[in-house]
Every structure is written in C-alpha cells, then in structure tokens.
Specification:
By secondary structure, the protein is of the alpha/beta class. The model is unreliable at 23-34 and 319-326 (pLDDT under 50). The protein is globular. 44% of the residues lie in helices and 19% in strands. The chain has a 12-stranded mixed sheet with strand order 2-1-3-4-5-11-23-17-16-15-13-14, sandwiched between helices. A 6-stranded mixed sheet has the order 19-18-20-21-22-24, sandwiched between helices. The chain is built from 21 helices and 24 strands. The two termini are 35 Å apart. The relative contact order is 0.08. It folds into 4 domains: 3-140 and 280-304, 3-Layer(aba) Sandwich (Rossmann fold), CATH 3.40.50.2300; 142-253, Rossmann fold, CATH 3.40.50; 336-437, 3-Layer(aba) Sandwich (Rossmann fold), CATH 3.40.50.2300; 441-578, Response regulator (Rossmann fold), CATH 3.40.50.2300. The structure holds beta-D-fucofuranose.
C-alpha cells in the first residue's frame, strides 16, 4: 500500500477514534471509564432484510458493547454485491484493524476478501468465500441442517406416501445448496416421500408468501413444506392458511426468539419443527479480540451446533439450559479433564501430547492423561476410569472411527461431556459428543494430490504408491478420499499399490521394502499419510539404490520436524501440514464449556503446505 494511502488511512482512523472517544465520553454507562480505544473493527453485513441477519448484527453490537476499548463500524450492503465491495473498500479506507464480513455472494466477494486478508485479519461469517484466504470462518453446518430437516419430515410422515414442497433461499447460495443437499440425502432413503416442487424465495417471508399464494390453488396434495428459514416457512403458512389448505406440516430453520421467530411459531403450532442456526455474531467479536491480541490456538473454521426445536422439546430446552448452566461451573476447584491419547506412534503424536499437557498446565486444568498404546480397548478402559473418577470433561483422540457408542453413552448417562480431539468418530447420534477439534483430513488429502499434480506436470502415466495410516482411522479414511477426489480428474495419475503402515516409521520402511520387491511397474511417486511412514519408506528406497525425491516424488502429511530435515536433504518433496498443537484450543473449549458457553460442533485447525523449497526458511519457526 502506498505511504500516502497509509497516511490517509491513519488520519481517518485517528479521526474516527477521536469521535468515538468523544461519543464514548457522552454515552459511557455510569462507572465505566473510557479506556483508550485499541481496536477498530469493520463489519460488512450482506443485508438487514432477513431476521437472521438482524439477529447476527444485534449479537455483534451487544457483544462489542461489553468492551470499551473497541469500536465497530457497520455497513449494510442491502443484498447488493457491488455495494458490499464498496462497503469493504470504504471500511479499509477508515483504517480498520480487522474485517468481519458476511458475504452476499461467496464467489463474487472472494477477490476482495483475499486482498483485505493480505493486509489485515478477516473473519468470514455464515457464507464462506472460496479457498482459505481469511483468518477464520464461523458458520452453521448447512448440510447437517438439511439432513436434520429431512429427518423430521421422515418422522412426521412415517411410511405414508408423502409429498414435500421445498422453499429455498437465494438461488445458488452455499447455504441454499447445502441445505437442499442434506434434505435430499435423507429423503432419498425414504422412497415413500417425494419432493413434489421447489420454490425459490430468496430467504424472504413476503416472497415466499406471494409465490406460494400464486400456486397454492393449483398445488397438488402437499403433506409438508420445508422452508430453508423460518421467515419463508411463515410466509408459506400464511399463504396456505389464507387459501384454506389444512393438514400441511411446516419445518423451518433459524429458531430465533421474538413474536414471529421460529421458537414462537413452534409454540403456536405454526411450525412442527425448526432448528436454531447460531449466527456466530457473538463468537466473531470474541475471536476478533483474540486475533488482534495475537492469542494462540485460533482455529481456521468453526461450525456452530444447531438445536432442534419442537413443541415437546421446548420445555426440555428451557429446563436443561438452566440445569446445565447451574452445575457446569467447577465449584472453587480446578477443572478436571480426562484425556485418552492414541499412543506415541509418530512425531506428530508426541507433539500433540506435549501440546495438551503444556496447555493444561498453563491454564490450571488438572489433566488425567492415559496413553491408549494404539489399542481401542485401552482408550475405552481409560474413559471408564474417568467416568468413575467423575471428571468434569472427557477428551480423547479415537484410534479408529467405530466402536465408541457404548462407552460414550455411559459418559452421557454420567452427565460428563466428551470432546473429540484430532480424530472423529463415525456415530449417527452426535449428541454423544460436544465438539470435535481437529484438521480437515479430506482437505489434507486434496492438498497432497493438488501439489503432486501441479508440481510433477507429467503428461504420461504417473504411478503412485500410497502408504495409508491406521486402518479404520479418520485420518487414513479421509486422506484417501481427498487424494482420490483430486486425481480422479487426472487419468494419467494412478494409485498402483496401497498398504497400511499404521503411521509408524518402521512399518513404512517394511511396507515400502515389500512394495519395491513386488511392484513390476515403475513407481513415480509415493503418497504417505504421515511423515514418519514417508521417512521409513525413504530408507527402503535408498537401500534399493533409488534416489527418493528425485527418482520418486515423495509427498506426505503432518509437517513434522523429520519431514523438514528430509526435505532439506532433498529426499522428501512436499509435506502437507496437519497441526498437532491442539492443546490451547482444547483447553479453551473446556474452560468455555465450564463457564456456561455453548461450544461449536466442529473446529478445524489452520494449516499450510510446505514444499521442499521452503524447508530451510520455515524449519527455524517450527514448534514440532
Ligand atoms: O497424521 C499421524 C498420527 O491423527 C492426524 O495420527 C493424526 C495422525 C497423524 O499418528 O502422524
């Protein structure tokens, strides 16, 4: 940025801060001294015509009001992409320290978000932009919301033939597409239920009412209407009621309070069900402060947990809410966290254990740490011991995805929340765990494949050997999915051999030695699910007289110290980061929960890709 522009920004920012200070002086609540202003944040809102966005903006405003050292400048793009781009440029002109943006259109706003992110931190709310050029994304899991709505419709209609009208938000917007996808995924399992028609109503109640009213007289039998937000569901209900259509069940999303909010509509019997869709407004202000104060453990993505709202659940939600808040606080003693670790199979795992122990000690959480030594039964035994010892929270990294139902039901019955760290479980009933903090392993697999395709630039066949991680573990399953998702578009790239090395270095060596002996085709590349197996395989290649990193491109995942050493020696071509330093995020989640806050359902860590060319430069700054 030119020095003249920077100087202008500083002048505008100083003027704004001065005006804010003066305003502060006049409207300071009694007793709160006007501290000097430190943070000037810009919030670019897509529109203020949707109730959910009004709620988001109000949440941000009330959370920001708690801090006298920050000010937020609000803009409303009135659902115009062009105007939102102008709004962002104007906010940058004011010299803001951080941008919070809820995009009108993800694709159209991606370039300017990338440009702003090159200068200041950016938090994206609700609709993600393309790629990863932002500090933090906070939003709902829209596909899951669609699945939940599909589940309710299936429950309501049972085995009878059912016809559903779907009312979608803005055509082509990520939330609308994902909610539709989730709905269809569930309803496809119920052949008696058909989606009879689709209406696009741009998230607006009046548009939904007008469009349904225009069709209601010719609409054939409709048994349920799923609208992608409560406002449109209410509009549809008004139209069908006016036309005298009865017996239709309405399902919405947002679950906002207030006289026409989803919760009231459920209470009044207008909606059969809705789902809260937390806006992320409050979280965005809290994380903005953490980012501006350079706190550690900021995730890359946060997905907020929805709650189902139905007539019979309304009362339970109220009472559970009061009970859980009352008993969560640890009465005047340290919080006790039980952690069941996978084992110590890799550099990554060792770094992960160190991060958890260090972070617990740093914040005064009493950590009961058990090493599962690679066996699920040991982890299950450890979790049961935590239940017996009545710990406040249980966290663990599941060695494999399945086989946890029983012990997690025991933890739930004991009233002890469970946080998943690093690896996920394959469980339909996700009420058995509170939150999952870890990487996006599918994306890691994609990144490994993208790097290989972009940097091998081969036109002829590229024969790939894959060393998989622990069979049945989330990272092994997902890293294969992500890698294959990318190479399926490049037919000359083929996985010709694949075997598990269980994330161990020595097994990576043994498996690669076997493959080198049995494989008749030329091997052009090795894709290892972690650095340890890659390093073991490198030794096997060298013993076979090959030059790893030259005769065979070697791509692995983790970005552990050993990988940087191998890259500097020219034996490893690229490592995709999988951040093991989850301790700070885990401890923040535990303390947040114990202080009565709701936890996101999913927190994805921030990660990069390190080609060999960056190894020397980056190694010095690495923590593991
Ligand atoms: O890649 C590997 C460790 O679960 C992400 O487990 C973790 C994986 C990591 O053994 O090195």
């Amino acid at each position: 940025m030119s020095s003249a522009r920077a100087g202008r920004r500083r002048a505008i920012r100083s003027l704004l801060l001065l005006l804010a200070s003066l305003a502060l002086g006049s409207c300071q609540p009694e007793g709160r001294k006007a501290e000097s202003l430190h943070f000037l944040i810009g919030f670019s809102q897509a529109n203020l015509s949707e109730p959910w966005r009004i709620a988001m903006t109000e949440e941000i405003r009330s959370e920001a009001a708690r801090y006298s050292d920050m000010r937020i400048i609000y803009t409303d793009a009135a659902d115009s992409t062009g105007r939102q781009i102008e709004d962002v440029n104007r906010l940058m002109h004011y010299g803001i320290d951080l941008l919070i943006i809820s995009p009108t259109d993800s694709r159209a706003l991606t370039p300017i978000v990338r440009e702003v992110y090159s200068q200041i931190p950016v938090i994206v709310l609700d609709r993600a932009v393309e790629g990863y050029d932002y500090s933090l994304f906070i939003g709902p899991d829209n596909e899951r919301l669609g699945r939940e709505a599909g589940g309710v419709i299936a429950e309501l209609l049972g085995d009878r033939p059912g016809r559903v009208l779907e009312i979608q938000g803005r055509s082509g917007s990520p939330p609308a597409l994902s909610r539709s996808q989730g709905l269809r995924e569930v309803l496809s399992k119920h052949p008696n239920i058909k989606i009879a028609d689709v209406i696009v109503a741009d998230w607006l109640r009046d548009t939904a009412e007008d469009k349904v009213a225009a069709q209601v007289r010719v609409l054939p039998r409709i048994d349920a209407i799923f609208a992608q937000n409560d406002a449109m569901a209410f509009g549809a209900w008004r139209a069908t009621s006016t036309a005298g259509r009865r017996g239709i069940r309405f399902i919405g999303i947002d679950g906002l309070p207030g006289p026409t909010g989803g919760i009231e509509l459920v209470r009044k019997g207008v909606l059969s069900a809705t789902f809260t869709c937390p806006t992320g407004g409050k979280e965005s202000v809290a994380y903005a402060r953490d980012i501006l104060q350079h706190k550690e453990g900021i995730p890359k993505k946060i997905f907020l947990r929805p709650s189902k709202v139905t007539p019979d659940l309304l009362l339970q939600i109220r009472s559970a809410e009061s009970i859980s808040r009352e008993f969560r606080a640890a009465p005047g003693r340290p919080i006790v966290l039980g952690f069941a670790q996978v084992g110590s199979e890799s550099e990554w795992r060792v770094a992960n254990t160190k991060s958890i122990k260090t972070a617990a000690a740093k914040v005064g959480i009493e950590l009961l740490f058990e090493d599962g030594k690679q066996h699920q039964e040991n982890q299950i035994a450890a979790i049961r011991s935590f239940i017996r010892r009545k710990v406040d929270v249980i966290a663990f990294s599941p060695v494999v995805e399945s086989g946890w139902d029983e012990v997690l039901k025991e933890a739930k019955a004991a009233g002890i929340p469970v946080i998943l760290s690093d690896r996920a479980v394959d469980l339909k009933d996700d009420s058995l765990w509170l939150s999952f903090i870890g990487s996006d392993f599918i994306e890691e697999g994609r990144r490994a494949a993208r790097w290989l395709v972009e940097n091998s630039k081969a036109s002829g066949p590229v024969n790939i050997v894959e060393l998989q991680g622990t069979i049945g573990s989330a990272p092994a399953i997902d890293r294969t999915i992500g890698f294959e998702e990318v190479i399926k578009d490049y037919p000359n790239y083929r996985i010709i051999d694949s075997e598990s090395g269980d994330f161990f270095r020595d097994q990576g060596y043994e498996v690669m030695k076997k493959i080198l002996l049995r494989e008749t085709k030329k091997i052009d590349a090795l894709y290892a699910h972690n650095d340890d197996m890659a390093i073991g395989a490198i030794q096997a290649m060298e013993e076979a007289g090959l030059k790893p990193g030259k005769d065979i491109i070697v791509v692995s995942i983790d970005a552990a110290h050993g990988a940087f050493k191998a890259m500097i020696e020219g034996k490893l071509s690229c490592t995709v980061e999988c951040n093991p330093l989850l301790g700070p995020q885990l401890m923040k989640a535990v303390k947040d929960y114990m202080s009565g806050k709701d936890l996101p359902i999913r927190m994805i860590t921030s990660e990069e890709v390190f080609p060999a060319s960056t190894a020397k430069l980056k190694l010095a700054g690495r923590e593991y």
